[in-house]
Amino acid sequence: MELVKKFRHQQVKNITNARQSVCGSGKNGIVELEDGTSMCARYEKNQYLIFAEALAFYLSRLLGMDNVPEIVLSKTDESSDQWKGSDFQKLNWKENVEVALIKWLQNASSETFMPMAIQNAYRTGKPVNSDVIHYTAPLYSTHSTATAELMQWGTMIIFDNLIGHYDRLILYQPVGKRKISRRSITSGLYNSLKSPNGKIWLIDNESAFFYQNKYRDPAYNYIQLLNFHDKMLKTMCIFQSSLVVELRKLSNLPSPFHHLWMYASTFEPLFVTFKKDYRFNEFARFFNKRLDDIIDWIDHCKALSFEK
Ligand SMILES: Nc1ncnc2c1ncn2[C@@H]1O[C@H](COP(=O)(O)OP(=O)(O)O)[C@@H](O)[C@H]1O
Ligand SMILES: [Mg+2]
Asked: Count of CB atoms within 10 A of residue 133's CB?
């Protein structure tokens, strides 16, 4: 959290329009802070998107993950130390709007593809377990890049499931009568970046947690996503042990979502300004339910491995 603290009080030295390939579409911007750090600035009408982005970051840290870039929320205010003289109006931004400033990842630019073992599991319904790793050695020797990639995918599958991400893994979901997915299972993963050292970054987490759709019951989108996320979860029966430890700790709390919200609020002062509406408790309930289901699946895998 050191970087978060550092970014929070820095002045915006320069701000320019984003492009689709650099910080995204809409009214997004590229911000340079006084220490020279580049940040993507996300500007959205819908506060759920901005807060989902921040909440995803805090969840990643709560679970011991380090592959979601640092983010701070900030309210546009010409007279504040942070925004003074930055002329954010040239991007058609208004005063008093919460924006998300997200650390720009320097060298992460390549794509990541679903590992063959997971693709096979997805097609056959037989999850990846230690046998798969064993039989396909030396591809999956203990320290191979392939193993590191497989484990990162496993963690991401759980993360996307838990937050109900509706703009990354889910794009592989076959939809409609003809069962055509927006992305083929062999094409690169959307809203992710890969560093030269093989680390997979999860960016653009605004489409998560809140299953938001102005005109529909929140449960509608939730149910739409559920089958696919569950099917993906069940492709993997091996997990990063540190992740499992943190998931269990979280699931043992009376309300995991509430805990996450409080955790985020201790670092991010703008969380108290979030306008909770009638849907909020429903979103909390979905999150807690997802976590329970994930733990059940992990327990199931553990039981299977003991049977052998
Ligand atoms: N933090 C970041 N570091 C490096 N590149 C980024 C970062 N955020 C976004 N990008 C680049 O900008 C593109 C669009 O950003 P994204 O956040 O996905 O915006 P949108 O909301 O328009 O989908 C990404 O595909 C990626 O190439
Ligand atoms: Mg995107």
From this structure: 19
pLDDT band at 215; cut points 50, 70, 90: low
Q: What is the pLDDT of residue 211?
A: 78
Handedness of CA 34, 40, 43, 44 (dihedral sign): negative
Q: Closest residue (by CA) to atom 9 of ligand 1? A: 23
Give, using CA atoms, the residue closest to atom 13 of ligand 1: 21
What is the token pair recorded at 264? 């985020």
Pair 273, 51: CB distance under 8 Å: no
Q: Which residues line ligand 1 (CB under 6 A)?
A: 21-25, 40, 69, 102-105, 108, 191, 193, 203-204
Give the pLDDT score at 179. 87
Specify the ligand 1 atom closest to the Cα of 69: 1
- State the distance from the centre of ligand 1 to the C-alpha of 23, rounded, in angstroms: 4
Kindly report, residue by residue over 123-152, the tens digit of the pLDDT: 999 999 988 888 887 788 877 889 999 999
Q: From 193, 195, 202, give the residue whose CB has the most ligand 1 atoms within 8 Å, as the site to mutate.
A: 193
**Cβ atoms 116, 77 nearer than 8 A:** no
The Å distance, Cα 304 to ligand 2 centre, comes to 38
So where are the chain's domains? Answer: 2-42+70-103, 116-307
CA distances from 19 to 16, 53, 155, 176 (A): 10, 19, 30, 32
- Condensed to tens digits (0 to 9), the pLDDT of residues 264-273 reads 999 999 999 9
